[in-house]
Amino acid sequence: MKRLLALVIFLPMLILPCSAGTDPSHTYSFPGMGMVVAPDCPIAVSHNDLTFDLSGADGFPLAQVEAAYTLTNPTNQTQVVQVTLPYVTCFGRFPNSTARVYENGSAVDCDTFYGGSIKNNRDYIYDVYFEDILSNVVFPQPPELEDGILYNLHVDISSVPEETVAFYVLINFKLDGDLCLTSHDSTSALNDDGQATLKIYYSLQYKQGPIRVFVPGGSISDFSAMAYKKSNLEEQFEYVSFDLEVDTTSMWDFTLTVDKDYGYYGSMDFSEYSYRALLADLYSELESREETDQYNGFVSLRKLLYDSLFRYRLAVAVFDLEFAAGEDKDIMVMYTIDPTYDKPHKDDRDLRYTYNYISSPAPHWSDFGTMSIKVIPPDDNELYLKSSRPKLKLDTDGTYYAELGKLRKKIDFTFATPENGYARVFGLKPHVFLILLAITVSLVIAIVKFLQKPDKRWRRGQKGDKQGR
């Protein structure tokens, strides 16, 4: 009985720590956006259908956005309009990272451009001046790096004992150049006389390609490499041998080679636009390091490739539409957005996924008519529509909708998991409810135990009477 009572008392202490996870409790994601046209555009929007499809997503529910526009040319002249679709994308999260555009059901060829990565800052995208996007739809072209010398250090581990997990490789050379890109993460040092040192942790837990060192527009001399057992570099590891291969290559080819070594992009197309985004990230990192006096001439292309793959960046799809006098066109744009994510803290709040959409540049159309919104909920039955702006109504087919008589500049809606049912009923936070529940159960058990005592004394008395007889 005492053990049971102790378990009940300590039950909240056992449960409550488990409700605090180690994952991030809040991750902000960027909104979907509407098409952008120049001010004084002669084309009008008769109607705009917005569909957010959350079905079919596993785990983190992505939303497939379909924005259908009925456009009309109210003038008596032929009009050619340049349209820009800005959107935020991430190569790693959205393998099909290019927005798709359809004109009267047929695919439209778009020029898609990717800018540098953007900060995970909620206010950033709302502060974008959309005329800047129109005036510079092609993001500034990062300057191409010069061709240079590529040093491929092949590491022969055929004689390494089986129990070996890893070792260290120390590379020394004299650098003639301003930038040195490596295929491996390393601890690097560069003296004023150009003498450079790279210390690389070489793990045998996974397959690795050669250690590659690329110097754009420069060269290396007095190259040497040695393997060591430990990080202190006191004892050499004689089971490793090296073979150096020297070649001339371009930054593009070097990038493709390193990506092949690690397989980050895999089946995804590492295109010219992906490469341009990578260069933008490289120059941004170099500028950031110089500002903080942390630049010593070395950059890990492996790390840069990985970071570039999973960074969010602003992209624009650019295309032209030609309208005859009085002509109507149906335009559909499609892309993917993910939600802002709120994870429960120790107070066990409900889990929330919030989706945002902005159409701030829409007033540039000559006129904007009605708007319809449709939300197809997630397949996960645990998620329910918690809130929405504008107010969404439940349709007979299980979807949610809203019919608006005018443009809505900002749209958002949130799906959430239900809170603790009993806690919600009694208006208590879950951890308070658990503590009160434990106290109540403890009192009930104590009362039952107390009421059982007279019965036990009566039974002992009856037993004594029988023995006396």
Give an overview in words.
This protein is α+β, with helices and mostly antiparallel strands and 469 residues long. It has 3 domains: 1-28 and 422-469, no CATH class; 31-138 and 312-416, Immunoglobulin-like (Sandwich); 148-305, no CATH class. It has 7 helices and 26 strands. It has helices at residues 2-15, 130-135, 251-262, 272-291, 301-310, 421-426, 430-468; strands spanning 26-27, 32-33, 44-53, 63-72, 79-89, 100-103, 106-107, 111-117, 148-156, 166-176, 180-182, 187-190, 195-203, 211-216, 219-228, 241-249, 298-300, 313-323, 328-337, 340-342, 352-358, 368-376, 384-389, 393-394, 400-404, 410-416. The strands form 5 sheets. The protein has an 8-stranded mixed sheet with strand order 7-6-19-4-3-22-25-24, with no helix packed on it. Strands 1, 2, 20, 21, 23 and 26 form a 6-stranded mixed sheet that branches. The model is unreliable at 1-23 and 421-428 (pLDDT under 50).
Summarize this entry quickly:
The protein has helices spanning 2-15, 130-135, 251-262, 272-291, 301-310, 421-426, 430-468, and strands spanning 26-27, 32-33, 44-53, 63-72, 79-89, 100-103, 106-107, 111-117, 148-156, 166-176, 180-182, 187-190, 195-203, 211-216, 219-228, 241-249, 298-300, 313-323, 328-337, 340-342, 352-358, 368-376, 384-389, 393-394, 400-404, 410-416. By secondary structure, it is of the alpha+beta class. The chain has three domains: 1-28 and 422-469, no CATH class; 31-138 and 312-416, Immunoglobulin-like, CATH 2.60.40.3680; 148-305, no CATH class.
